[in-house]
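Internal QA ticket QA-208
Title: Verify multi-chain structure generation after dependency bump
Assignee: T.L.

Test input:
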Amino acid sequence: MDFTFSPEHVALRRMIREFAENEVAPIAAEIDREGRVPFETLKMMGEMGLLGVCFPQEYGGMDAGETGYCILMEELGRVCTSTATNVGAHIGIGAMSIYLDGTEEQKQKYLTPLARGEKIAAFVLTEADAGSDAAAIRTRAVREGDSWILDGTKTFNTNGSFAEIVTVLAVTDPTLGARGGITAFIVESDTPGFEVGTHENKMGIRGSSTAELIFDGMRVPHENVLGKVGEGFVSFMKTLDMGRLTLGAACLGGAQAALDWSIEWAKTRKQFGVELAHKQSVQWMIADMATEVEALRSLVYRVAWMVDTDQPFTQLAAMCKMYGSEVASRAIDTALQIHGGLGYTRDFPIERAFRDARIAEIFEGTNEIQRIVIASNIFRQHGVRIRP
Amino acid sequence: MRILVIMGRVLDPGGIAVNRRRGRIFVNREEYVMQPADRCALEAALRIKDGLQPRGAEVVALPRSVLPDDDVLRLAVATGADRAIHLTSEGTVEADDAGIAQVLAAAAERLGGADLVLTGATTLDTGQAQLGPRLAEALGWPQILSALHVEASDGHVAVILKQGKQYVTVEADLPAVVTVLPDALKPRYPDGVRLINVYKRIGELAAAVEQWDVADLVDVEALTPLLEKRGQDFPPERERGVRVTGAPREMAQALADALRQWAPS
Amino acid sequence: MDASYLDLLMAQQEEPAEAEGMEAEGGGGIWVVADVANGAVTPVALQALGAARTLADSLGAYVYGVLLGEDTTDLAQTLYQAGADGVRVADDPSLAQFALEPYLSVLWDLIEAQQPEVVMFGATAQGQALAPRLAQRTGGGLIEHVVTATLDEATRTVQGGFPIYNGEYFQIAACPQARPQFLTIQPGAFPTPFLDPYRKGEPTMIDVEPVEPAVRMLGPARDFDPPPAPLAQARVIVAAGRQAGDFELVKQLAAALGGQVAGDRGARDAGWIEPEQIVDVRGVKVAPDVYVAVGIRGNTFHGAAIEEAKFIVAIHPDPDAPIFEVADLCLEANPQEVLPLLLEALG
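Actual output:
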């Protein structure tokens, strides 16, 4: 077993870390305060090829594999969760859905500009009545000649307010439900009938855009059906699996940051005549935090390797997301405790990280759903089909 | 136009701790970065190349010493250099700047000559600025040192540098050697696709980094270092809280004297 | 007052004692190529002469000053006063401004003819341009930015110490075989020698054949935007706190020292500085060579942000101010009183 990263991944990580520290970190507090998406950063990343990090070079990507993508998410998550969210929605579920299920023509037409960072992607599923119960979506797609008319409202969508290419899940046959009734469509956001609704005012990840999308008689050509008609649900399950791993990687970055800040503070802050590092209670907090980060790191990169070597990974990806989000929350909470009063002020990044981390346990499939996925997989391997 | 960029690596100072009392240096984290001034030199070369499109220019990266691996050179290609030459040798070659200047001059000749050589004006660790001028002497070319801005075309190079408190422009005919100050320019990031391909050694960049044996360029015997290391000295432990006493005028004078030691400009 | 020692000194100057094994003629020796600026010998050249003198006395060698320029012949006397035994002067219009090829030509001929053991330059733009080229041409070794110089008498080798990572520690190097040994001397590292007004001499004039410089000066660079200098990388910082009083004086001190202005949160509240200039764990961590805290009380949050500064000066009226626990040099005084006098003393 060789646990070392290959030379290109080491070099990639170094490049991304420098970029993250010099371009992303300095504006992280500002984009949170102003609630704006850092388009200038996304543009720079596009020019460097980072927005296509895991896609093949024939589609304008970098071909650094899922490992490369996890490295990107970890390094971004380490400095700015909002930026990691913007990038994750673009690469991990938006462009990824087209990569996994698109025809050759669709990949050439849509994936290539996304991988090159010329356009931004979004993945549009959630509705007011359909969060964890994703199959309960009501957005309708009705066939009319060689196109489909879409009507409906989507909520809590990341990137949808500015993305050019969005993958939309809609009901094509209300009688069939998840199995056969849902279809995925590639939609260009300048299509008439595509409206951006209310922007959400969030606790954290305020440097990312979460908005309502309204489709009103929106006409989408039949050739934009992604995958087969009626197989949209299966398609998005595949996409979300990939997304879970990389969200785990972003949480790893956040947890690592919390650990680094805590160590730095323990070295610096003196009370009772010595640095906090000499106090056992702080030592134990740091030891526990570091152990969880290491465990998460091993899990994330092992699963990345499994993806890169075409092995099944659904259950482990769910573990990455579930464990990652909880490790990150625990780490940042402990970091806040170590920093004391100073950590509670806005002068320090801790309070922003605290607010940002919380969403990870909720979006991309709540941790409760993840636990169901994991348990179902385990029991199926033992011959038991869990009744939902 | 062919531009050579001489690049080196340095141990990341963040990974080093110096214990003055025990007179020891601890390397906690052995990580190497490109010499910052050399990175600016590469950026200057790439900007010249960008300016000369579509005719273009060829940027070739060479190392500042006989390096144990070619990582810095791969990174240079990833950032935009067209080629790089990695110097290898059978045994360990310990050469200092005097010897390397000869090797690089021979390498330039073997490449078929060059129009401009760019390198960093100083090194982050040793603060030695001699490689650029030594190479200029070995090549027999003019030199311009400590550049903040470099432009080259049609047989001339024009450089902006600081003289005293003023910024001035100077010019020389090519071929010439120019050294660039660290922080003079904002260096660009590598290109992701080039990075992956040059490290994986695939596609067009499979052979971008060539391996040249030092023995083919110069007589290795002649590369014996001129300088010998004779140990380290450590600054005294700081004595904090030293009071300056006296009337305000005396205090001011004592402080002025101390400041002159520390900020001679 | 017994001034008989002066007679002895003057007697010595009329007939310099011959060192053993040295040509009275003037070959070999320790040379100092002296920079000239604003019509005077630069401080670093004098400091180099002082260092050369110390080494020469142990080696039993002569110290030769070398002066290049136009109308600089009179300055030779300063070199004698600083300790030179002999001075060579190249006084020619073609040498009026420093240019590489003309200066190299003169020095190369001199070095070839006289074969010095050691050649020292100030680590100035001139010295840093000349020393490496001469070293490469002669096959000599060069140690740059030397801050300490001791002698290995057995091999007549100078051991030069130079800063690593901007002074974290000092590496000592020597050039045991190759000759000449070249050194560039860091300004301010060596003491300025006492200028003895009774030490005089007759300089040797060197013939100069004009050589065309390869680099042409085009003039001031108008509209040039210098690269931004972030506070975190500044080498000299003058920071103000609430007790600084007149912020103008703080700015003037920063300008006089060639540094940047910063402050603590109090200075920001007073409207003197921008938030990006706050030195604090919650703001910018700095690592300058010199940090002058003017009227800053200081607390652990400020102290932690300046712990990498090499030399910290604090001026504050309250003797119990916490800043005095981290500062190297402490002035318990009112900044308003001290700063004008300090600016005067700095000239």
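Spot checks passed. Residues 14-25 of chain C have pLDDT under 50 and may be disordered.
Status: verified.
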